[in-house]
Write a structure and sequence with these properties.
mainly alpha, 4 helices, rod-shaped
């Protein structure tokens, strides 16, 4: 016995559709063609809390925030690296000065030692 479409409700039509088509993408595309793009968005949002447009919006917003955070982090890393390079250069200069000071002290000590040795030899020769 055939039943006219007028006598079917949405559930009955959905059951018949499930017999004819198994691919959800095909079903979705067909429903959007019949009802129009975005027709189901309020229901989707009510059921799942997100619509395709909202997803796109928050994804864009997330990417913008992520890029901002990356830029800020990179700026901080660059400033820190520059600071470390400057400190290293200062330490190199300090170490260089200390090496010169040590060399002078060593030279003076060596000269004094040589004088003491020479005086000791003179004293012993007398």
């Amino acid at each position: 016995m055939l039943v006219s479409l007028d006598e079917l409700n949405a559930l009955d039509i959905s059951k018949k559709l499930a017999i004819v088509e198994k691919d959800p993408k095909v079903i979705w595309k067909s429903l959007e063609e019949v009802f129009g793009f975005g027709f189901f968005n309020p229901t989707i949002e009510e059921e799942f809390g997100i619509t395709p447009a909202f997803k796109e919006q928050i994804t864009k917003q997330f990417n913008e925030e992520l890029n901002k955070a990356r830029y800020e982090a990179q700026s901080k890393v660059n400033k820190f690296a520059t600071s470390i390079k400057n400190e290293l250069e200062q330490f190199r200069k300090i170490i260089g000065r200390k090496n010169k000071e040590l060399s002078l002290v060593l030279a003076e000590s060596s000269t004094k030692f040589d004088l003491v040795v020479a005086e000791a030899k003179e004293t012993l020769e007398m």
